[in-house]
Amino acid sequence: MAQGSLFQPTEEQRRTVRAMSGYGVPHDDIATLLDVDPKTLRKHFRRELDRGSIEATAKVGQSLFRMATEGNNVAAAIFWMKARAGWREKHDVTVSAGGGAPLVTIYLPENGRDPPATEFSIEGTATEAPDED
Description:
Elements: H1 11-23, H2 27-34, H3 38-44, H4 46-69, H5 74-85, E1 92-96, E2 102-107, E3 125-128
Antiparallel strand pairs: 1-2, 1-3
């Protein structure tokens, strides 16, 4: 677009910006596609940039909620509870010396890749702590 000319967004450009924002496309890339400066994009498409992202998040949240509550999708239900209800996985490991007094307590978060650590020994003994109810 020629410098100094007045920019007038079209309805098609507005729909494109809203969709791309919802898909997570960076603003600079959207501006490049429209052949405008990023400042021009933000000035003339602020509403589309904001709403596209919000609407996409809401739609994915709605889909996840349905999967968790109606689709018997355990993974979706667990994710929802961790993300929205503050659930977390917690593994307590206590290391003690020969006298039985704990030296240190280590919290091992579940990373989904490695098997949970249940026992190890470093000049003493270690056992998995019981789950707190």
